[in-house]
Amino acid sequence: MNCCLQGYLSEVGASLVDKKLGLNIVPTTGLVELAAPTFYYGRVDRAKARAKERIQSRYPDLGRRFHRIGLPPKKGSFQLFVTGYQDAAHWFRIWETYPEQAPPPVTQREFQILFEKIVVLDYVIRNTDRGNDNWLIKYEQADLAETPVGANESKAAEMEAQPPDEGQLIDLKQTRTVHEPAPAEVEWADVTVPKIAIAAIDNGLAFPFKHPDEWRTYPFGWSQLPMAQKPFSEETINAILPLLDDTNFVQQLGEELKQVFKNDKGFDKKIFERQLSVMRGQIFNLKEALRTRKSPYQLILMPAQYMVEVKPKKRKQRFRSDIDDRTDCECRILKYFST
After folding, report:
1. Residue numbers of the domain that contains 332
2. In the chain, how long is the greatest CA-to-CA distance?
3. What's the domain count of the chain?
4. 0.85 cut: is pTM over it?
5. Element (H, E) at 273
6. Does residue 181 sit within a domain?
């Protein structure tokens, strides 16, 4: 399938969409320019770099005239490294093999909401390479404190019960100890709730300029999980639907993505418009799924949409026969195509 462009721009674009939607599951990713001898360079670039370095070392005055010394920088994405995470498939195997180690209900509820975030992200950017081995889970087991809550009080009581020095008068009322069992709820410290977090990495094969149309449809790896069968939670609906319903938000998102993809020397405005058409179609389906309380699995079964933005001045020329059937969503004309 040749429908995805530069992978490093896709990584940066996914981080942008993640921040704009408030998902916060993609490690911060930015666009950088770096040079290193371990990068791939052609023989010409390496020869020029060596020649400039020799000239600078032998003739410093002449070397100062060079605009750049060394290998030319290369553009790429730079993503913050996350620690303590392992791929989702690893944890699913453990929880299936050892059910007693699976998260408790309260943590499962939190995990469901996090899972829906990765569904939203992958669907909007149309990630074509999402398996359960390239999104990560950080799971911290509950801690059990084995020190009784009333340990300090018991120690103080023992100190008071120590025998007095010889010849010292004692008061029986003050030294009398009462051996009553402590209530069960204060015998032990409370058990902490397990903590869970996810990280969506490896987003380099997203933002295609067409929907996959080959024999392999590039399904989402999470679609076969039991969590994908549950309807979207109210938390996800209330957080995401208002943003996607805001046409200004969607338009601004497209403009910011354009600024990211324009960093490529081979940027093609027409190709980028096709990428936005795919993304708009994905957003259209996602809005309908959230509004009708569908599940992630039902979402991916919806017909793929392709939304083309048509300039107002071309309205009568190109779609005169479709005037009554068109949908005008944002003072712009958007044409829907099901694929």
Report:
1. 7-28+80-144+190-338
2. 114
3. 1
4. no
5. helix 269-291
6. no
